[in-house]
Every structure is written in C-alpha cells, then in structure tokens.
Design a protein that fits this description.
Elements (H helix, E strand, L loop, with lengths): L1 H17 L9 E3 L7 H18 L3 E5 L4 H13 L4 H4 L3 H14 L4 H17 L12 E5 L5 H14 L2 E7 L2 E7 L2
C-alpha cells in the first residue's frame, strides 16, 4: 500500500512538471519556426498578456526574427501582392535595390528571384544597412485579420500604454507590425 502511495505521489509530481504552468504559458501563439529576440519576446508577452486580460483573446505572431532569405521571401510576396517596397520601407535606396533584383529575376521563377533578392539584402547587411528590424530581432508581425474593430482598438491602446514600441498597420497581407524603438 505504501509503495502505491509513493508511486501516486511521484506520478503526480511528474505530471505537474510536464504540464506548463500558468506562468510558463504565453499569452500569444506563434507560427511554427517563429523566433523572437529576448527583448522583443518580453515586450510581446507584456502586450499580449494585457490584451488577453482586456479581451480574453490570445494574439498570434506570424513572423519574428528573419534571415535574409526569409526577408526576401516576405518581400517577394509583398511585391507579388502589388506592394511597392519604396513606399513601405524608409530606406528608399535599399528598397529600390531589392525591387530591382525582383524585376531582373522575376521571370526566372520564385526561388531564383528570392535568391537574388536575398543576395542584395546580404550585401546591404554587410554595409550595415538593415532594411527591416526583423533582420536584427527587433520586430514581430501580429495577425490582425481575425480581430474585430473593438479588438484592434484595444490592441492599439495596449501597445501605446506599454511604450517603446512603434506600431504600423500593414494591409498586404493585413497585420500589425511592431518594432522596438531604438
């Protein structure tokens, strides 16, 4: 009988260790493979937990830290959806270089075009030019298409209250882009 009680207690301890505690569970979800920098992760958790407290909903992060290849794929998709990079990114010259690589290589197919765009981005990074804060772990994209008008308003208010974060609303595809202010 004593052995069974010991086993039951040990089993309960193992189950409690395996199950995430409320403190370990984040207030947001992410796409598979999404990574966030430590500072961005803390900021996102603060925003998401306050949003969840106010609305009962969890936010979904669709993108975080990106490699040059991932950034090129995202930019390729934006161009294909009709977005002009020179209107979207502050560094007009860097955006123009990437758009030019797209124009030169678009007929070669997606993978070749993305490879060429990625090489341009790598060259920019070598020169110290980062077209996006995604490239150095200071940005995330949060899904917005599943949020009501009220939830969007709450989200904006929470981001403003947390501070230290710039919020951009993008429409192609629709999402909130958050980047740390440095």
């Amino acid at each position: 009988m004593r052995r069974r009680a010991t086993f039951t207690v040990l089993f309960a301890i193992l189950v409690s260790l395996a199950a995430p505690s409320a403190a370990e569970e984040t207030s947001y979800t992410t796409e598979d493979g999404v990574r966030l920098g430590a500072e961005m992760e803390r900021t996102m958790e603060e925003i998401a937990s306050e949003f969840r407290r106010r609305t009962g909903r969890r936010l979904h992060v669709t993108s975080g830290t990106r490699s040059p290849d991932q950034q090129a794929r995202a930019m390729y998709d934006k161009i294909r959806l009709g977005q002009r990079l020179t209107r979207l990114y502050r560094d007009y010259d860097a955006a123009s270089e990437i758009q030019a690589a797209y124009r030169r290589n678009r007929r070669q197919g997606r993978s070749q075009c993305v490879r060429a765009m990625s090489e341009v981005i790598r060259g920019q990074i070598r020169r110290g030019c980062f077209i996006s804060r995604h490239l150095y772990a200071s940005a995330v994209d949060v899904r917005s298409r599943n949020l009501s008008r009220r939830h969007r308003r709450v989200f904006r208010n929470v981001v403003r209250a947390v501070g230290g974060v710039q919020l951009l609303e993008e429409g192609t595809p629709p999402h909130f882009h958050l980047q740390l202010e440095h």
